[in-house]
Every structure is written in structure tokens, then in C-alpha cells.
Amino acid sequence: MDKIVSLTPSFSVSPQISVSDVGIIAAQGFRSIISNRPDNETQDQPITAAIAAAAQRVGVGFHHLPVTSGNIRDEDVSAFAEMLRTVKGPVLAYCRTGTRAASLWALSEAHRLDPAAILKTAKAAGYELDALRPRLEARWSSAVKPDSRRSVAAYDVIVVGGGAAGISVAAGLLRRRPDLSLAILEPADKHYYQPGWTLVGAGVFARAKTERAMSALMPKGARWIRAAVSGFAPEENAVIIEDGERLGYRALVVCPGLKLDWNAIEGLRDTLGKNGVTSNYMFDMAPYTWQLVQELKGGRALFTQPAMPIKCAGAPQKAMYLSCNHWSRQGVLPNVEVEFNAAGPVLFGVQHFVPPLMKYVERYGIKLAFGSDLKAVDGAARKAWFDVKGADGSTRRIEKSFDMIHVCPPQTAPDVIRSSPLADKAGWLEVSQETLQHPRFGNIFGLGDVCSAPNAKTAAAVRKQAPVVADNVVSVLAGRGPQSIYDGYGSCPLTVERGKIILAEFGYGGKLLPTFPALIEPTEPSRLAWFLKEKMLPSIYFDLMLKGREWLAHPQRLPHEPQPHEASRPPN
Ligand code: FAD
Known about the structure:
Bound molecules: flavin-adenine dinucleotide
Mean pLDDT: 92
CATH topology of the largest domain: FAD/NAD(P)-binding domain
Helix content: 25-40%
Radius of gyration: 28 Å
Distance between the termini: 16 Å
């Protein structure tokens, strides 16, 4: 089938198809076919029922909305729009030449897309629809005028979230295609370099070093819309923002990070930041960790880790090792009873790193409590309660006293994702773990902490994901499929002592993926890795990654295959 052309990533048109074309159409990933041709127009025309039967055999939906050439009525347009809204995509619509199908699409989009953009898109696909201009303009102005605040602005790309992922991918997209109209939806006015918070909690970094004005990081050419997304309407290629306004896109990149669920632990919110209760997972709180560590000369220090997945799975123990190292240097470690309470069954998810970490657990005299999940804290009483799993599967609630407790809160997908049609069963943004494309909506991609992909949720992962998504979005906008592949790379610089790091770098399935294998032995504590973390990574983050300079991050690419829009097609 070399006659199909894409108008959007989820909608294509073609001239008349034959029964034998249907299998190829299914193999190209189309989920629905719409025929806009009445039966018996010409003698060589296949019977619609035969095409419908062939579609049914291969599991593709078939819909018949016949319109007469040169006489597309408003009710036809409404019926077509409703069809596009309700049938499974990607959709292929056909008529004799494809012009009626393209015209129906153009008219059905005219309430939300600028007529010039519609005509340009159709022309690029080989359909000259200039005769429709007056109708398109009439529809566009009647849709926009009644309440311009509610009007739909259309962007080539909308990026949801201006964190590590959002800024990196937007910068990468604009480097590839400076002509893109691209908006970043981000409500916060501050951007945080969260990997630095471990070092703030250890007195190595000042808190201010990890905070920048969001405005200073917005890539040139991006429009910053300072609002949170409150809903997704993927069938309409629109997102809904807080005030109810809908914004249209051709491609959407979803990266609002994850939700730290502080409220899931009873009493925690009331006592965080006082009574010896702290967390490096909060910008304001990391300096308090360092204050507590310096003040503690003896007693019991608890460190907690919730069920996976969490961002930077090593961060709870990084806080613990650096605290122990300080107490050791001060000569007070023998007076401190240190306990690591983890909801899961293992110290670290990638087995290669467990033996070297266990050496530090033994060296610091840390007691490990697996299957121990923090449920409640009473700061004033200096008590915490854990649900502890027994070998028989039963759960007991155990009370532990503390002088200091470092809490890592439970983490989930943001509510706006969990309640959206984009979520997987567990609530995370569903993506293909290789292309990072949404499996049901081909023009939607995701990256960063929000994703369902089973990589380590780290900024290091984002550094490798952003080029993949930027490549694939550009490819989809050009009517092709995704071209680049993500290997699951993530990294966790495990700060086992001040001045030394075990640099855990790994991909899907726990495969070791060291960046500098000749310089840094992956499972050994390394001074060079500490130097990298302290002196180089902040600048790699701010000056390279967030600017779309993809150093050591070039993705693997799929072999290029000729695509429908690149092939020749017969004239109308
Ligand atoms: P974020 O950077 O969290 O950004 C999400 C953005 O989305 C935010 O700006 C937010 O305001 C915005 N947003 C939220 N909701 C909406 C909405 N509805 N609409 C629009 N915008 C929205 N990674 C490493 O690589 N190495 C480390 O050593 C490391 N250590 C860490 C230590 C700690 C203590 C922590 C907390 C994290 C650490 N990380 C580390 C993890 C790393 O910071 C994250 O993985 C990374 O920031 C994820 O990027 P993101 O863009 O997905 O999310």
C-alpha cells in the first residue's frame, strides 16, 4: 500500500482500497477504516461489504459514512467528527481519490485548528483543499469568537512538565526542529536539581545550588504556559489545563514526574522538619538532615524506604551511608544504633551492587530490617510504627523509638495521570519501554519518573530518554513511525562515604552499562565517581542536558524503512 498518506499521527487517508489491501492496512497498525464512498459510483469499485468483511477478519473496525463528491454537508462533518472521536485509532479513511476523506477531516478539525495550518497539512500530504477555505474560516471563527478564553490554541508539540525531562526534551526537539510551535505546561516557578539533595543532606552542597528560576531554563523558542494540566483528551488531541481551557497539539510529551505521597504516612506532615524527622526528598528539608546528623552524638537513627518504584532507589541508603560516615569520622558511630527499614526484600534491586554495599552495611554496623514498611510517625513522642511482614505472610505493626528518622515517602503516579486514559493498570503513564510511545495513542510519548517503563527513575535515565523521545516525536510529526530506541539506562551514584561513590549504571534487566568502564570499575567505590557527582554532574545537567546538548546520549536507531508519505501516489 503505497497510496496512504498521514495527515496526523493517528489519521491517514488513501484512494480506494481493495479487499487484498486490508491485511496490509492492518499490518501497518491501523485499527479502524472509514469508507467515505457511496456504493456503485464507478464500475471498477469494490463492494463496500466485501471490504468490511475483510476488515472484520483481521480485527480492524470498519465504518461507512458515504458522502457525495462536491457536496459535503455539515451533518456529514459532524458525523465524521463523532466517528473520529469514538473509533479506535490510528484511522484510515478512503474514498475514490482520498479528497473527500481529507476534506471531511479538514472540516471536522476547523473548530480547533487554524485554517492555514489545516490547508498546509493537507497540501503537504498531496491534497489541495483551497476551495474549502471559506468554510474552514467560518467554522474557525464561529468556534473561537463566543469565548476566546476557552479557545483552542494549537501547537505542534505540547510538553507537560518542566522538570528534568520536560526541559531536556523540549530543548532537544527545538534543536532538531527550530520551526516547531512548542509549549511547555509547568505551574512551578522554580526548577530543582534533585540529585543534589543527597549532598545537601550531607553538608556538601548548599541548598541554593540545587534551585533555579524556571524562566531561566526555558529553551529558546518554547512558550512557557504557567499552568498545571488537569486532564487529557487524547482522542481530541487536546489537554485541559487548570482553568478548563483546552489546548490542541499534534504530538504530546507527558513528563510531570511522580507524586511523593507524604500523606500516606500518618502524622508525618505534622512533624516533618522538627522532632528529629527529616527527608532528603524535599528541598526545604535536606538541610535539616545535615543539621540532625551533626547534632546526633548517640541514640537510634532510623532510615526508611517504601515499596518500589521510587525515584532514585538508592537515595534512602545514600543518606544513611553519608550520615554513618560523618558519625564515624566524629568517633560517635559506636553510640548510634542505625537501622535501615525497607518495605521490599532486598538492599538494592540490581544484584551486582549488593555485595559491595553489604561491605559498608557491615562496616557501619547497620541493622537491616526488610519487609518493614513505615506507616505512622509521632514526632513529639519520637516513635514510628512499621507494618512488618512475617514469613507466613501475616503483617504485624511494630513500634520503634528514634532520635532521628530519615523518611523516604511512598511514591505513585500523579493523580492527573492515574485518572487519565493514558495510565496503565498501576496508574503510571503507559509507554513502550523501547520507543517511549504510548501504545494506544501514537502521537503521545512519555519520559521521566511518570513512565511505566521498568528503568531506574533517575535524571540519568532522562538524559538518555530525552533524545529518544525527541527523535521519535519529530519522526511521528513527519508521518513516520518511531526511529529511536531506549535501552533502559539509569544510574544511581551510591555515596557510600564522603569522597567515594559506587557508580551503579545499568539498563533493562539489570544489565551493567558503565559509561567509563576503563576509568571507573562499576561495582567498586571510586574517588573519580565522587568527583564526577560533586564537580561535573551539576554542570552536565544544567549546561548540557537541559540545553538539549546530548553528550554521550545518542540513541540506538531502527533501520529506516520507506514510509507511506515518501512513496508516490496517484493524482486525485
Ligand atoms: P521532575 O524533575 O520531578 O519534574 C516534574 C515537573 O512536572 C515539575 O517541575 C512539576 O512542577 C511538573 N508538574 C507536575 N504536575 C504537573 C501537571 N499536572 N502539569 C504540568 N506540570 C506538572 N537522579 C539521578 O540521576 N541521580 C541521582 O543521584 C539522583 N538522586 C536523587 C536524590 C533525591 C533525594 C531525589 C528526590 C531524586 C534523585 N534523583 C536522582 C531522581 C531525579 O531527580 C528524577 O528522576 C528526575 O528529576 C525526574 O525528572 P522528571 O522531569 O520526570 O520529574
